[in-house]
# Entry
Amino acid sequence: MVTMGPSSADGYDGFITFSGHLALTPGTSFYNYGKQMRRVMEMFADWMNLEHGGVDVGGKKYAVRFVWVDDRSSKTQVMNATAVALRSSNADFVWAGYSSGLTAYTAKQANADGFLMMSGGAASTSVFTQNDMSFGLFPPAGVYTESALEGIAKAAAGIDAGTSTWPYAKRCGTGSGDCKSSIKVGFIQAAASFTRSQCDGGPGNARANGLTVATNEDGSDLVLEIPKSPTLAETVAALEQLKDAGVNVITTCTYYSTGTKLAEGLHNMTWAPYALTVSATIGTQNYADAVRGAGGFIYEYVLGYSIWHGSGSRIGEYTGLTSAEFVDRFSARFDGAKPSYHGNPNPNPNPNPNPNPH
# Structure
């Protein structure tokens, strides 16, 4: 069990305690994502308690603290971890750890124990529709691919209009204003609830931007699935299926282990489509380290889409910080590390709502 916040309520009128599960064991699937969340909650607790003297409720000041129990990135442990955290910490609210797959179980446990749950790491809408006590800060997973596909469509339109400065513009189409119409989008999703929900919205997002979507023989959209941590052979098999279908823009719904393997697969095939987009990969410290490492050039030509970036201009309504100011604070505190959207301090303006809020 890990506690963040004051060990004593001295100087305050009490605690407001958020308790829940988080991946605390290095090497487990969601440890790095959980580490991002844990660091930001540590910053928030200190910001609220030390800089603002706690939370003002009816003229009284309450210290904020977080209590985490290790879920080991496992669906079989998340409900027990949540229950232990709640019942051993005098909890006021549940804060769920990373992943839609795990948070779906957190929501059940929190509801059974009568607690309001807030999720900082789930985006599948189904997590939040199962009861009226669950809320989330991320936007619905189905919109995640919007920005990447919109960007590709705009880049293609620029090539067709002759305004693009991209040095490889002639690769797209025949050079006769047909770049955008030549694009055919195919999808690969990792085998997990979050990534499936992401790619559910992908074909619609592509068509909304005027892009053609590859289809199967029966007319259904070509969306392939590979394991979350695939082998090279599994990855290449899926990529070859897209290539055979005439796909030249690959939109994927991934975790880090999936995204990096896709880049490796393309290199293995010596295939260079117009674009490969991945999620939850680029922007992480691990990815930056991989690019700098031996053979890291294979990761340099991959596009990453995200619901938040440190260069954004939004200002947190509660913190008053810009994204850049938050990044500076985070880096100064954690030896130069950069936060990904999993540590986003400025929640999405259209988060996953509860369908029947009290």
